[in-house]
Amino acid sequence: MKVSRRVFLGNLGALGAAAAVPDNARAWESKAPPAPYGCLVDLTRCVGCRKCEQACNEVNKLPEPEMPFDDLTVMDRLRRPDHRSYTVVNRYYTGRLDDRDRLAPTFVKVQCMHCQDPACVSACITGALTKKENGTVHYDVEKCIGCRYCMAACPFEIPAYEYHEPITPRVRKCTFCYERVEQEGKLPGCASICPVEAITFGRRNDLLGQAHARIDNDPAKYVDHVYGENEVGGTSWLYLSGVSFAKVGFHEMPTEPMPKVTETIQSTMFSYLWSPIALFAALGALMGFTSRRSRSKEDDHDA
Amino acid sequence: MTHDPKPVKAPFWTPGTLVMLAFMAAGALTLVFRYTFGLGGVTNLNNHYPWGIWIGLDVASGVALAAGGFTTAFLAHILGRHYYEAVTRPALLTAALGYTFVAIAVFVDIGRSWAIWKPIFYQNHTSALFEVAMCVMTYVTVLWIEFIPVLAERLGSRIPLLAFLDRILDKTMWIFIILGVVLSCMHQSSLGTLLVIAPTKVSPLWYTPMLPLLFLTSAFAVGYPMVIAETTIATSSLRLESEMNVLSPLSRFTILTLGVYMALKLGDLIMRGAYATLLDGSPQSNSFLVEMGLGVVVPWFMLLFGTVRRSRRLLFAAALMIVGGVMLNRFNVFVVSFKAPYATEPYYPAIGEILVTAGAVATIFFLYRLFVTWFPVLSARRQEV
Ligand code: SF4
Ligand code: SF4
Ligand code: SF4
């Protein structure tokens, strides 16, 4: 038995050495679809009517809101999307004045950004979240185990959770109206309803072109930044603003996609399981060596 | 062989075990609420702070503190230092109990407990959590397999299956021993990878792409101190001999492992320039100072002295500081350092979360005592020459 074990370990060592050549030479590559849809939100146009919230609620069959959608006093405090509302509109006063010298509000619609290389998708343990070819970051409740790693990973803190469901809680976030767009060929609920065309739906590349054209045509009206163009490697939802983004609730984000570092670590260490196999072989060889040595010592004693 | 594990002959029902029962009952009651009112009913978790102490302490610290299992297995079985076999069984028991409770903590923390098997079939290979889950799942199994001989020694005559498995394992145990070390290295490091995906949320004092390496080296470092701490507690509460003849030499290895961890950690801090915020008095920097100062630097210097390594009290103190330091490190990474920029209020653990955690710890102590009373785990007392 002992001898055969050594032979086996030797074979294992060879196997480990062969596997120890990882193909980690290839650098990390973005998995973003080439021509995703997107939405361009122009904050200079938004009038804060909350119609997009209402449309989203109806299209996605969400529960009745606590306060009716025509009640604008909800904007007195900052809100975040939650499990009952996939999008909310917040109001900011940045010191900007209107043409009658009164403080002018800026309204900001918040929802999932549908990142090009989403942290949530990379993190999800079961692949319940996926980036679709049309740009949607899609949630499949059938696979979800409720670990909430997507929530810990999302830089925009978007996925919301049904914390008061004891057995079957779901992760809730803007669906980009996936079925509506993909199967019915319609606009997302929010984009279709907006009375002032603050939300433009289209191919992300076209939207970026439009956004820069608007800035170029009226440089006094806009800050020269399309939020979402490069943030976290790019998002499908893009924003134009007349005031500094930092003043209306947008945080500065790295331009590297969030999953880049972790995915590089994971694939470098575990492609073809080379490192565990190599370690197993090395430890096996070591164990074989030490047990032979201690056995021969025992033999000496016996003699 | 110098060691000869025997069941401990000590009365089982003591005031201590009764206190543990009380904590266990409180924890169990909280779980009833958890499965009646949801996570929101008993925790302070919210959309910005989705992970609390059940992940930061029960899972992350739990995994780290079970490192005594694979580090002693490596020393005694793989390196062949049979002298240390006296502590492999208690370390194995702690690891098996620890990991079993890590799995239970995950089960309770995930919203859809009934779906816990799903990652086996729906695999996402870019997810560090997927790797942690697979390794922990496999490792729990491996640990209990490694424990079978202990069970068989006591029950083999009554349960033929155990005796049968024991005989098979006699020839194959080396596979499981190596597998245990490999799996430990994998998931100890992947546990550190988890929050690398959230650079905007983790404080720069802890955020580094080196987190996986730091988690791995700190797991190496905490292994023997954990064995020293638990053996000292067990031998003194069960009135056994102190086993200092094993623990003192064991502590010498920690000078190296803890030293490597300290060097990596301080080097990383300096390279990234993150030490700049160290004295700003924020909860983060204070917690970092305690973690590194009391948990790493001071005990490392203590261990340099032979008088400390030979004194039961001082060695216990140093080991306890290292154990506390690594626990605090996991807690810091997952809870203290985690700041969600969009959050409107911070996270503090709710009483329900604390009760469940305390209940889990009490159950581990309770079961440990139960096992050492029934099964041949500890070899103290008759081990002296
Ligand atoms: S915003 Fe968050 S939830 Fe939405 S795709 Fe990006 S990472 Fe995922
Ligand atoms: S909570 Fe669900 S969707 Fe989110 S990471 Fe976990 S399994 Fe994936
Ligand atoms: S795209 Fe659809 S789900 Fe998302 S905010 Fe608009 S209406 Fe709601």
Short recap of the structure:
The complex is a heterodimer of chains A (303) and B (385). Chain A has 9 helices and 9 strands.
Structure description:
The complex is a heterodimer of chains A (303) and B (385). Chain A is of the alpha+beta class and 303 residues long. Chain A has helices at residues 2-19, 51-59, 119-123, 149-153, 178-182, 189-193, 204-217, 259-270, 274-302; strands at residues 37-42, 88-97, 103-110, 129-131, 137-139, 160-161, 171-172, 199-203, 237-240. In chain A, strands 8-1-9 form a three-stranded mixed sheet. In chain A, strands 2-3 form a two-stranded antiparallel sheet. The radius of gyration of chain A is 27 Å and the shape is elongated. Mean pLDDT of chain A is 89; it is low at 1-25. The termini of chain B are close together. The radius of gyration of chain B is 21 Å and the shape is globular. Chain B is mostly helical and 385 residues long. In chain B, 70% of the residues lie in helices and 0% in strands. In chain B, helix 5 (88-109) packs across helix 7, helix 5 (88-109) packs antiparallel against helix 14 and helix 7 (128-155) runs antiparallel to helix 8 (160-193). Chains A and B meet through helix 3, helix 4, strand 6, helix 8 and helix 9 of A and helix 1, helix 2, helix 4, helix 7 and helix 8 of B. The structure holds iron/sulfur cluster (3 copies). One iron/sulfur cluster binds at residues 55-56, 59-60, 86-87, 111, 174-177, 188-190 of chain A.
